[in-house]
Structure formats: structure tokens, C-alpha cells
Amino acid sequence: MDTIVNKINKLKKEKNAIILGHFYENPEVQDISDFIGDSLALAQKAEKTEAEIIVFAGVLFMAETAKILCPDKKVLLPDLNAGCSLADSCEESKFNEFLKKHPDRYVVSYVNTSAKIKALSDCICTSSNAVQVVESLPKDKKIIFGPDKNLGAYVKNQTNRDILLWDGACHVHKRFSANQIKQIKIKHPKVKVLAHPECEASVLKIADFIGSTSGLLKYTKEFDDTEFIIATEPGIIYQMQKANPDKVFIPAPSFNEDNNICEYMKMTTLEKIYNSLNEEKYEINLDDDLMKQARSSITKMLEISNQLKL
Ligand code: 13P
Ligand code: SF4
Known about the structure:
- The chain is an alpha/beta fold.
- It has helices at residues 4-15, 27-32, 39-48, 60-69, 85-88, 92-101, 115-120, 130-135, 149-159, 178-187, 201-205, 213-222, 237-243, 270-279, 288-307; strands spanning 17-22, 35-37, 53-57, 74-76, 106-110, 123-125, 143-146, 163-165, 192-195, 209-210, 227-231, 248-251.
- A four-stranded parallel beta sheet has the order 2-1-3-4, with helices on both faces. Strands 6-5-7-8 form a four-stranded parallel beta sheet.
- Strand 7 (143-146), helix 9 and strand 8 form a beta-alpha-beta unit.
- Helix 1 runs parallel beside helix 14, helix 3 runs parallel beside helix 4 and helix 4 (60-69) packs across helix 15 (288-307).
- The protein is globular.
- The mean pLDDT is 97.
- Bound molecules: 1,3-dihydroxyacetonephosphate (13P) and iron/sulfur cluster.
- 1,3-dihydroxyacetonephosphate binds at residues 38-39, 112, 126-127, 170, 196, 198, 212-213.
């Protein structure tokens, strides 16, 4: 009998489809993906692919970004409930009201937003290029950064620009506890703390390295350190461990009993990917004008990234 993996691979060939997966996905979903990466790499891959169908093993804002970049392709999300708490922390009408109060400010939005927020923004960024996007603007440009206040504060600190922050955050990243990380460091004096910039300032302050998911993965491969505390969603540890079988990876602990799993990313399963490919569901469809507006802000980011070879 054919395994689900074989069935997915057959359908992929038959339909000229590609599976793009994020590092926070379940290991078996990462393994079946044709390409895995951070938000920037996934958007760049979507833009370039020649496949006719893109199945997004990630969350809604990532699938929407792929659709906006490739409006003629069929973009499928295996589970429409795979959302993002950070994107949800920025509702369109409230964000629009905020922008109207500051019409002189240039709007930089994190890619973790709905298509409507992207359409209201001047330029998009991801955690891989947020500092560079802001630095590409004239020094006297006043900026609004949304929706992630932690990433925004980090960018403000790195660039020393006049940045007004939207008050949003990711429910996973805001849970990490700097105090508990410090406790682990006492027992593991050589441990290096690697943190995603969506973490709170108290965690970033004690981090040895701050970067996007692919930035953190790269660090574990390039440096000789052997023990790491990983302050981001622990799905990334699967690739870290694969690349460094002899190194030790400790998921950063959270403030309370809650774990640090992004339940949205874990909604995608092999069964759902199979059904998605087989029945060509759930297709992402967006209004043409909305896509046009959102595309210009995403394209700006991709141009800056290409110029800087990010
Ligand atoms: P990356 O772009 O660094 O992969 O981050 C995506 C994300 O959702 C972080 O929570
Ligand atoms: Fe969104 Fe947070 Fe999940 Fe990333 S980890 S997809 S920011 S909810």
C-alpha cells in the first residue's frame, strides 16, 4: 500500500505543485517540503517558482504573500485556521485610524500581517531584513512600525531612527522568560542564547545572537559553540539538530505553564497536505486591487533584499 508520503509526492508531480514549508512546522511536514525557510526566503522562493500550484505549509499571511506575488498561480493552505496571533493583533480599521493621526510617517509593516495591512503600508519587512529596510530610508524620515512592538523596538534601537510603534506582539515569543534563561545559564556556563527579535527586550538583552529563524540556524552551523538556548518556536530545533547532531539545543522556557508551541504552525499535517493537493483546497483568493496595493509594498522589500543580497 502507498504511504501518505508517496501519495503526496505523486500528486506533486502530476499537478506540477511545490510545497513551501516554514521551520516551525512539524518535522514530517518539514521533510515533505520542497523548500523550507524563513518568511523572506519563502516569499523569494514563491516569487521565482515555475510550479503551477503552491501548497503553503505555514500560516495564512505567508500563503497570502505568495498569492500576492504570484496572482496567476493557485496557492493552497491546507488548514484555513492556521492564522497568526501577531497578524491578529493589528486590525485594519484601528491601524488605519492610527495612520491617519500620523500622515507624515512612512509605514513599515512586518510581513506577519493581513493583506489589508500590507496594502496600507509603504514597505514590508521580515525579521531577516527589518533593520536594513529601515536603514534604506532617508535619515530624517519619520516612521511607523507595526505590528510587532518587540521587533519594532529592536529595530529602533539598532537604527536610532524616529519610529512610532504599534502595540502588537506574538503570543509565543512574548512568553519567554529572561529569568529562567538566566537560571539555565548558571548550570550551563558555556551556553549561547539565540533569540528571535519578536522576543521581549529582557530576553534580547541577554541574547548572544539575535536573528530570523534562518539566521539562528546559520549561527548554529557557523560557530563552534556546542550548547544553545533557543528563544523562538522550538520547531526550528529539528533543522538545528539535523545540521549539528553532536550539539545540544535547549528550548527557552516560558513564564508560565504554557508551552512555547505555535499551535497555528502545527495545524498542518501530512493528511491535510494530501487532501489539500488532492482536492485543491483551500485556495487563497484576494481582491485584485487589494493585491496590487499590497504587492507594491512587498516588492519594495524584495528589491531592497536583492540589492543587499539578503
Ligand atoms: P521568520 O521570518 O524569522 O521565520 O519568522 C516568522 C515568524 O512567524 C516568527 O514567529
Ligand atoms: Fe505568528 Fe507567533 Fe506563530 Fe510566528 S510564532 S506564526 S508570529 S503566532
